[in-house]
Amino acid sequence: MNRPESDYDSRGVFIAPKKYYLGFDKIEQKDKGWDEPGVFPFLDGNQDTVIYELRKLLHLLSGANPNVLELLWLCEYPVLTDAGKLLIDRRQLFLSKQVKHTYVRYAFAQIKKMETHRKWLLNPPGKKPIPS
């Protein structure tokens, strides 16, 4: 919901160093530890940030992942490189009939979360659960 008190969710893409592609390192995304102020000024102080490595992004896009597919249809981008423009110019390539199924599964999962949360709110547990 976009309201005046809403925060910003920042998402993006990066190309990993060569050692990652050679198999000497593993990184798929960065979603915490934004302690490099000034590197990306629009991220300073923003805790809702995920930046995907290019191969992971392409994998998620090819699977019609709703969380990343929407990145290709934003109205504006704080930073847009030539490589990013190339992806956006070819965004139609990532649309398929699979989109319908992934979005429906995502919507049902969200409904299930809300139903579970509602049940908990209406009938909260009397004591803390004990791990088995």
Strand and helix map with partners:
Layout lengths: L9 E5 L3 H4 L7 E2 L18 E5 H9 L3 H4 L12 H8 L8 H25 L10
Parallel strand pairs: 1-3
Antiparallel strand pairs: 2-3
| Main sheet: strands, sense, barrel | 3 strands, mixed
Strand order of the largest sheet: 1-3-2
Give the CA-based shape: extended
Tally of DSSP helical segments: 5
| Low-confidence blocks of residues | none
Radius of gyration, in angstroms, nearest whole number: 19 Å
Task: Report, as a whole number of angstroms, the end-to-end distance.
Answer: 38 Å
Name the average pLDDT: 82
Question: What proportion of the residues is helical, as a percent range?
Answer: 25-40%
Total E-strand runs = 3
- Helix/strand-derived category reads mainly alpha
SSE order, one letter for each helix or strand? EHEEHHHH
Work out the strand percent.
Answer: 5-15%
Provide a compact summary of the structure:
It is built from five helices and three strands.
